[in-house]
Structures are given as structure tokens and as C-alpha cells.
Amino acid sequence: MEKTDETKALEIAQLMEDYKGQDVTVLDVSGLNSWTDYFVIVTITSGAHWQGLYKQIKDYIAENDMQVHVTSNKSPQGDDWNLIDLGTVVVHLMSKDARDFYELEKLWHAAKKLK
Asked: Cα dihedral sign for 9, 15, 18, 24?
């Protein structure tokens, strides 16, 4: 049986928690835009932490027949906010400072919080 996009988002969130991602949040933004359905937002502690979490995401998408559409650094320093676009799920790996500054949960306040 094929997994739903919500299940995939929640599984990625659990994977991020398992590998020490902090303050993991899943937002259902499906009714608020036309380009994705779920945000998984994770606080990271360092560039090495980001690399470890990204490796786990790559392993997950390989096992679940998904693909990365875009990976980009959204901050000038390059390691404060990394976005991984998986189509229906977008993963945001953010430093605490970037997360406090951009406040994605407040920006997308109308989204349903799943985790």
C-alpha cells in the first residue's frame, strides 16, 4: 500500500527526531498554497548536524521512491536555513537563530499543526 503524503511528512519528522533534530514541527499547508502540502521544520545545531540529517532524508527518499526537486540555502551564511523540496513535502533545516528570525510557524499560522 502506498503511503500518503501526510504519512511521509510525519515519518520524516520522526526520523529527524530520532537523529537529534530539535523542535520538530509538521504543518499541513495544503489549503494555503499550490506548490506543496506539508512543511517539516527542524532546528539544527551545526553544519555537521545538517549533513547528518540530510543524509537520513536522502536515505528515506530513496527507500520511498521520492525525489529531491530542489535543495537550497536560504540564508547568506549557507548553513542557517537549508530547504529540501520533495514536492508535496518541504523540509526546512534551520539554525535556532534563523528559526527565531523567520518564524515560519507564525508566518503560516493558518496551517494545521500535525506535530
From this structure: negative
Residue-wise pLDDT for 87-109, tens only, equals 999 999 999 999 999 999 999 99
Cα gap 35→28, rounded to integer Å: 12
Per-residue pLDDT, 72: 63
- What crossing angle do the helices spanning 5-18 and 47-63 adopt, rounded to 10°? 140
Residue 51 C-alpha cell reads as: 549533513
Spatial strand order of the sheet with 89-95 comes to 70-73, 81-85, 89-95, 38-44, 22-28, 112-113
CA distance 80 to 95: 5
Residues of the chain with pLDDT under 50: 76
Half-sphere exposure of 39 (CA within 13 A, CB side): 25
Whether this model's pTM surpasses 0.70: yes
User: How many other C-beta atoms are found inside a 10 Å radius of the C-beta of residue 97?
Assistant: 13
User: CA-to-CA distance for 84 and 72, rounded, in angstroms?
Assistant: 7
